Amino acid sequence: MTTETAPPAAKRVPAERTHHGDTVLDEYAWLAAKDDPETIAYLTAENAYTDERTAHLAQLRTELFEETRRRTRETDLSVPTRKGGHWYYTRTVEGQQYGVQCRRAVRDAETDPPVSADGAPLDGEEVLLDGNLLAEGHDFFSLGAFDVSPDGRWLAYSTDFSGDERFTLRVKDLTTGELLADEVPDTFYGTAWSTDASVLFYVTVDDAWRPNRVWRHTVGSAAADDVVVHQEDDERFWVGVELTRSEKFILIDIHSKVTSEVLVIPAGNPTGAPAVIAPRRQGVEYAVEHHGHRFLILHNDGAEDFALAFTSADAPGDWVPLIEHSPGTRLEAVDAFANHLVVSLRTDGLTGLRVLPVGSGDAYDIDFPEPLYSVGLDANPEYRTGQVRLRYSSLVTPDSIYDFDLVTRQMVLRKQKPVLPGPDGRPYDPAEYEQHRDWALADDGTRVPISLVCRVGTPRDGSAPCELYGYGSYEASMDPWFSVARLSLLDRGVVFAVAHTRGGGELGRRWYDQGKLLAKKNTFTDFVACARHLVKAGWTASDRLVARGASAGGLLMGAVANLAPEAFAGIVAQVPFVDALTSILDPSLPLTVTEWEEWGNPLEDPEVYAYMKSYTPYENVAPVNYPAILAVTSLNDTRVLYSEPAKWIARLRAVAPGGDYLLKTEMGAGHGGPSGRYDAWREEAFINAWILDRFGRA
Questions:
Q1: What local confidence, expressed as pLDDT, does residue 4 receive?
Q2: Which of the residues 37, 168, 230, 527 could staple to 214 if both were Cys, CB 3.0 to 4.6 A apart?
Q3: CB within 8 Å of 27: residues ≥ 6 apart
Q4: How big is the CA angle at 515 (ends 513 and 517), to the nearest 5 degrees?
Q5: Could you give phi then psi for residue 40, rounded to 5 degrees?
Q6: Which is the catalytic residue, given 637, 643, 675, 693?
């Protein structure tokens, strides 16, 4: 310890619970009382303690922040996207936290997106929303909906000023600039316009903060007059709403973790009753896209890695195969355009895109040159188009926007995110960095992929420090991504690695299934296997290895801290799900019931209860030597409550005293942390400075 100041003392107030004959005492349950002044005082004291313990890193934090800022073009403009008679884009301005949403009319014979010098406003620009003006007077700001009506007249948008993801929905007249009296509080993500823009559909949540209702709002009327179009009473299911790209149908998506149902309303008849595409069947997932006379159905009915079929749009019934199931090729989405379909897929751990011409022509895959990369469709609102916009990046290639001609197969780079010269004044050169795919061997013989990036010439003798990132839940894939802030670590000799553990989706649905429910521990043992492989292969050493993860990846961090504390020099757990058993046992908490198909239901199943209790981090803190731990959370997080890491850190100090455990709570933010870009850069600089300190490179 570099200071003799003691950490805040968390009082112990035992709270008893009994399940399946097992009685547990939770001494720190009182920390869940968010409105209790004692809780706020404790969190404030923890922040002060963390500030003091990291005060010696202040200069390094400033350097890291300035390096990110110096490398970023602060005044910039996104590649405009065409929708109807306008180009839509976002501008950022140096010194301003938030983006400015704009549009400009399409001019005669204009086919390529307009550009501007150094991010300056386009000639003839209309400012639709300025996030900086909306955020004035607030510590937090997030834009939920941003949905322009089909005729281009109305803008539906929603705002959140606390971080709890509960938005106030408003409608703006883009012809006059007036804000209508329409105002709907406590909405969720997702909106959809009717064809004539007279009706707006939106979503609200129940008392457990589960999106459960789709509403119909008539523009110009009071929210009190809105009508519930669908209410989902099964607590396992969420609802969402969207307008198809063809603008012909409103889709109401109803889904649990393993089951789907889709309702459809003609966008030209918004008061019509929703019709079911296919009734829900337990374990069958499907998604719908409209294409001409048919609905495209991406589904897993007898197809573990999903297949593509279609059914009649006039009378939905049998599903006619279009792409048969191919084990090992996971179909993830289908996007329909008038004359082409584009299927997003992954195979061998990499993302890809397959084009299916409509009518004539053979299907083909779009090729990309790098051994590791991430590619997907970007915004493509136009249905009748001969080209699509792609977003591409890798661990060494900055985010790149391409327009791809679906007929000629020509790809045009519209913009690559600028990376300005760093502290040494030299421009960014991807050739100075190298990326690798390595494989670790898990305890059961499973090969687990690892993605790595480092500077060329980084030694492989175990002397290099390494940050190992992981997630491994919900079939989410940690595909290679570029980070400006990461360059500051790489340039200081750090290796950055990603462990693609089971529970994620990198290697298909089976990879996910092998890391959930009663197989969840595979996620943790895979990560430890990756850590040990990196040491064995000479990438790093255990006293120079820091693990990092967020949300469900924070659960991973807490689990591996208990499983193999000796394998790491430090652990960063952001908004970590470390009190999983307590949360999943309480159906009154936000999202708990919907999570039972991911983790199991410990309330009803004693086997699930015993299994979860054996791995949940808070329950398994032991009197051992833990690595240094930094837990970062947010007071208004509704997905993973701040009390989970607060309780975890308190128990670590009580059971394993002498360790270096820090808790940092954002007092005015949600699950995603600070909302402004400069605030987010400062948070990343804080974490990276702490990581470098673990490596002795502060």
A1: 63
A2: 230
A3: 12, 13, 14, 15, 650, 651, 654
A4: 80
A5: -65, -40
A6: 637
d(C-alpha 182, C-alpha 170), whole Å: 6
- Secondary structure of 364-400 in the HEC alphabet? EECCCCCCCCEEEECCCCCCCCCEEEEEEECCCCCCE
The tens digit of pLDDT for each residue in 201-256 reads 999 999 888 999 999 999 999 999 999 999 999 999 999 999 999 999 999 999 99
Catalytic residue list contains 196: no
How far, in Å, CA of 200 to CA of 194, rounded? 6
Mean of the per-residue pLDDT values for the chain? 96
Q: Taking the mean position of all CA atoms in its chain, how far away is CA 19?
A: 33
CA–CA separation, 71 vs 65, rounded Å?
10
**Residue of 158, 393, 551, 634 marked catalytic:** 551
Q: Please, which pLDDT band fits residue 673 given cuts at 50, 70 and 90? A: confident
Residue 604's contacts (CB-CB under 8 Å, 6 or more residues apart) are: none
Tokens of 149: 């009506």
DSSP label of 508: -
3-state secondary structure 11-76: CCCCEEEEECCEEEEECCHHHHCCCCHHHHHHHHHHHHHHHHHCHHHHHHHHHHHHHHHHHCCCCE
The whole-angstrom separation of Cα 40 and Cα 500 is 37
679 is catalytic: no
Q: Give the integer Cα–Cα distance in Å for 487 and 173.
A: 43
Return the SS3 of 82.
strand
- Give the C-alpha distances (Å, rounded to integers) separating 548 from 468, 551, 555, 580: 6, 11, 11, 18
Q: Which of 488, 671, 675, 693 is catalytic?
A: 671
pLDDT at 622: 97
* pLDDT tens, residue by residue, 472-489: 999 999 999 999 999 999
- Lowest-confidence segment of 368-372, 400-404, 636-640, 656-660 by average pLDDT: 636-640
What is the pLDDT, as a whole number, of residue 118?
A: 86
Token pair in block for residue 640 = 């993973």
Report whether pLDDT(579) > 70: yes
- Average pLDDT over every residue of 85-99: 97
Amino acid at 107: R
Residue 350 structure tokens: 């990499």
Contact 415/392 with Cβ under 8 angstroms? Answer: no
Which candidate, 483, 546, 549, places its Cα nearest to that of 692? 546
